[in-house]
Amino acid sequence: MSVDNKPSPVDLRAAVSNVVKTVDPMLKTTTHRTVKSETSADETPIESIVQGQNLSRTYYYHFDSNVPASAQAVFENAVNVYNQTGLVKLIAGEGTSKQNSVTFFVYSKKTSGSNNSSVMIESGHGGPQITQQTGWGAYTANHARAGLNVYYPRLAIKQSVAIHELGHALGLDHSTSRQSVMYPVDQGVTKLSQGDIEALKAIYGSGEKSNS
Question: Following DSSP, what letter does each residue of 40-86 receive, concatenated?
Fold first, then answer.
């Protein structure tokens, strides 16, 4: 079975804010939405560094140069799944440093002991990276990444895995529900659960913010 190996997300908020505050200590921080920190078995958790962030629902996505057509296809399908919710809007393109973006990539990594049928195979990883500037010209942006492990193409280059990794990029964390696309072991799920939808609503609202 394939499993997602989610790396620790990178949070650049403190570094950027400290630089700005050194110039003008009177600058105010941005207002954040309050998000519940506890979830039930059916709810999908939210990545800790995304909780409370005031993120636009619009993302620009692009592929690294080495991403094969087969991986691009499953990522494009994943993009369509999230776009159909109306809660986020993913657009092909680079975007600017102040805009949300997702970089799709591939890598090749053999899981130790993978010849053993009981070993979980790493199929991909992804996550958010928050950059925030406060004060004049304030912005908060998520420069996320989502990748597939092409060492195991049969297990990793799948729509279910791409949806899962893009979910991490957008701020969804691992769920304990097997009906969720965010369950850490691939179940072949390609439809967002109600818990997944509610978590997206908690991050992005009901689709009212479309700043690009």
Answer: -TTSPPB-TTTTT----SEEEEEE-TT--HHHHHHHHHHHHHHHTTS
DSSP, res 185: B
Q: Are 175 and 45 in contact (CB under 8 A)?
A: yes
- What are residue 126's DSSP bridge partners? 146
CA-CA distance, 93 to 151, in Å (whole number)?
A: 27
Residue 131 confidence (pLDDT) above 80: yes
Give mean pLDDT, residues 118-141: 88
What pLDDT is attached to residue 159?
Answer: 97
Residue 108 has pLDDT above 90, yes or no: yes
Closest by Cα among 177, 119, 165 to 1:
119
For 2-24+41-112+119-204, CATH number out of 1.20.120.520, 2.160.20.60, 2.130.10.10, 3.40.390.10 equals 3.40.390.10
Round to whole Å and give the CA distance between 160 and 79.
12
